[in-house]
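Batch manifest, entry 17 of 40.
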Amino acid sequence: MSNQNGTNWGFQASTAGRDTSWDAFLDSQPYGLHQQSTLWASFKAHNGWRPIRIKVMAREKIVGGIQILVRRFGVLGRIGYASRGPALSENDPELFRLFIDRVLAVARAEKLRYLAIQPPFGLHGLTSPLAASGFHPVHFQVAPTATVLVDVTQNPERLLAQMRSGARRAIRKALQSPLQVRRATEQDIPTLQRLLSATAARQGFSPPSPALLENMWRSFSSDGRFVALLAERGGAPVACELDIRFGDVLVSKRCGWSGEFAKEHPTELLVWHGMQWARENGMKFYELEGMQPSLADAICRHESLPPGSEKSAHWFKLGFGGSVMTLPQNHGRFLLPGLGWMHQLTARALAWHGGHRLSSEPMTGSLRAYVDASVCKDARPGVGDQRRESESMGPDPSIAA
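Output type: structure tokens
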């Protein structure tokens, strides 16, 4: 298959567990796509998900593809979802069309009943070909549709200068405190779990189990991609942050805090150390993963903020000088006729067993508008300077299941 410029594309489908060439291709793509990696597939296998990988080849090189995670759900049958996929290095409408056709053919051959796709940053042009192929916007989150990215290529002074004054003061105070930060080891997993459980108890969500943390460590640490930071005071653990390094991004997945020494700002200190680790190791961005859609919408549109926003973990993420990044809307499609009645059951299966919670709000007109933006930033002077005690960045639905 080729386009009008004569580029010949081939497609390869695979269910292999590990594919280093695919991971290397993803590493070359912007903004980090760890959810599309075979490492992520290995991690999600803990919950019964299995990968289907469709690669686009040109001149014997990978130029794109998608990883779909598949699981059987009783009477619902086999359901698949792709988080932040596909990854396509060529922005060609004809490639989009041919690729979606091949994805559907493979999905049918694998007897999938439902497929959900949540495209990554920069692929808003994929939504029209998806719609033309029978996909529809869905109101549940396959993956977070907004997040916060901090450009860490700047020097430390510039990074501090672009933060809100409250975050900047907290970091400077923490740096002068007795708190010390080190990189955790596998032997620290029970400590990490205790800190995450303490935060979960305060905020009312279920913490990740020790088995899940061990699985994540095994899946990502072999390539040095799992970065766990531990803040201690006098050798006693106070707070932790779990990060994944992929491509040009260090992604903050989860943060935990014992509840002690709030005035020394251990959580802000860990964010700062995460940024510095990313910068010193050649990353371009530090991502505070996940942003409440209604808050991201209000910021991008310069509208009044939703009630209670300034007390939320999402608001905390905005204090570090990052940009709110929005992704294309989630799309889904039933692959067998007459199954529309199964939509809500399928949505819940994906949201909870897939590791992503259902959106807590309907997809309003303004929310639909925000997903068409690519980058926005809250530049209003003085917004968010109110002091907030150190706390976790909240539950990450992608590792909660």
